[in-house]
Predict the structure.
Amino acid sequence: MLVSPSLLAADFLHLDSEIAMLSRAADWIHLDVMDGTFVPNISFGFSVLDAVAKVASKPMDVHLMTVHPERWFERLASLGASCVSFHLEENYDRAAESLYEIRSLGMKAGLAINPDIPVEKLYPYIGKADFFLIMSVFAGFGGQKFIPATLDRIAALRRELDKASDPALIEVDGGVGESNAALLHEAGAGVLVAGSSVFKSPDPEAAIRALRAA
Ligand code: DX5
Ligand code: ZN
C-alpha cells in the first residue's frame, strides 16, 4: 500500500520541515491544485510546486482540480512531477488524449472522478491510465467526512481492472485515515491520500506508517 499525504493539510509557514518529513516517511507527495472555478476553493500553484520540487525526494503526485488541466501538463513535467491526475468531469471530450499527453511527457497519468460520477464512466479508459483517483469526498476541501459508498466503487473498478489484467493503481482521496485504511485496501485501493489524518496527528510519521501497514 502506498501513502501519498496531502500537503493541503500541512503547516504552510513551515513547508521546509513538512517536505523533509514527507521525504522521509511518505511514498508519494500529494499536491492539490485548485483553481476556484472547477472547485469552489483556491489552493496553491506553481510558486509552491516549484519550491517543493527543489527539496522533495519522493515522487510528486499532482491532483489537478482545474478547468483545462491540459494547459499545465508540460510545465508539471518540466518541474519534475511524477504523477498527474485530472478530473474526467472536466475533460470528457479529451480525456484519452490528456492521458496520452501525460504519459508522453514521461509521467504517470491518473484519471479522477468525484463521488457523483458513476464509476463505470472510468471503464473506457482502462489500459490508458496508470492510476485512477476515486474521490471519497467532493473535491475542493480537506477535512471532510469519508463517503462509505466509495468502498463499493473501488471494488467494482478493481474487478474491471483485474478482468483486463491491468495493473493500474486505484488511489483514494478524502477522509482517509486509520479507521478506513484496511477496508480500502481490501476493496482494492493501492494508494491512500491522507491530509488531515496525517498532519493533525501528534506523530505524522507514525500516522503514515500505520496507513501503509493497513
Ligand atoms: C480534496 C483534496 C484532498 C484533500 C484530502 O479536494 O483532493 O487531497 O487534501 O484531505 P483530507 O485527507 O483531510 O480529507
Ligand atoms: Zn487530492
Observations:
- The mean pLDDT is 97.
- The two ends are 7 Å apart (CA to CA).
- Strands lie at 2-5, 29-34, 60-65, 83-87, 108-113, 131-135, 169-173, 191-194.
